[in-house]
Design brief:
Shape: globular
CATH topology of one domain: Ribosomal Protein L13p, Chain: A
Radius of gyration: 18 Å
Strand content: 15-25%
Largest sheet: 4 strands, parallel
Structural class: alpha/beta
Helix content: 25-40%
Distance between the termini: 49 Å
Strand order of the largest sheet: 5-2-1-6
Order of helices and strands: EHEHEEHHHEE
Length: 146
């Protein structure tokens, strides 16, 4: 006797995406990044399927008012490499945050996402803005308290 497979598997055509608005003013960077990563991957949904991109759109405002704990403001260093010999670049958190606070949050969320083929597609649904205004009013994003 063969038992039919009753497990649920979400298909790409059945994914319904919502828009969420996250205000990160006076929130800790790492905690915010993990919650945003969960929204982008779709882990908050009951029909979450690991191999299917079922996440939602996330609009982040007030990225310039996010905070870090401890001495990260002075000690944290970001690294990147151009691929050429001697092409390594080091950026202090304080300097990068003063120039591009959106980049800080983007790098934190990028580090929280799983390293697979869906990562680039999920990051495209993340919109980060310095101030409290954003151009996505037409999508009527639902405010999420993190």
């Amino acid at each position: 006797m063969v038992i039919p497979d009753k497990s649920f598997r979400l298909r790409n055509e059945d994914v319904e995406r919502k828009w969420y608005l996250v205000d990160v003013e006076n929130k800790v960077l790492g905690r915010v990044a993990t919650r945003i990563a969960a929204l982008l991957t779709g882990k908050h949904k009951p029909q979450y399927t690991p191999g299917v991109d079922c996440g939602d759109y996330v609009v982040v405002i007030n990225a310039d008012k996010v905070r870090v704990t401890g001495k990260k403001n002075e000690q944290k260093i970001y690294f990147r490499h151009s691929g050429y010999p001697g092409g390594d670049k080091y950026y202090k958190f304080k300097d990068l945050f003063s120039k591009k606070p959106e980049k800080i949050l983007e790098l934190a969320v990028k580090g929280m996402l799983p390293d697979n083929k869906l990562k680039k597609r999920q990051l495209r649904r993340l919109r980060i803005y310095k101030g409290s205004t954003h151009p996505h009013q037409a999508q009527q994003p639902e405010r999420v308290e993190i």
